[in-house]
Amino acid sequence: MTARFPGVQMSLVTTPVSQLAVCAQCAGTRVTRITMTLTDGSVVDFASCHTCEHKTWTEAGTGLDVSDVLRKAQKVRA
Ligand SMILES: [Zn+2]
Description:
- The protein has 78 residues and is an alpha+beta fold.
- The protein starts with 30 loop residues before the first strand and ends with a helix.
- Strand 1 and strand 2 form a beta hairpin.
- The protein has a domain of 42 residues.
- It is elongated, with a radius of gyration of 15 Å.
């Protein structure tokens, strides 16, 4: 049996969204939110708004700058 969700676009399958994300920029609800682990082990949430293209990085509820994310992602293990 296949579950069907009317009105929900299923072409992009990511981590199930348990709570509705809201864009901090435009308060829109067309936000894709995924959780990923960076190279240094940091678990961060990435949210991207489809309405205004505002992107947000968050680690444990604290906002991250893009430069912080890049630095964490590029860290090489010795
Ligand atoms: Zn937005």
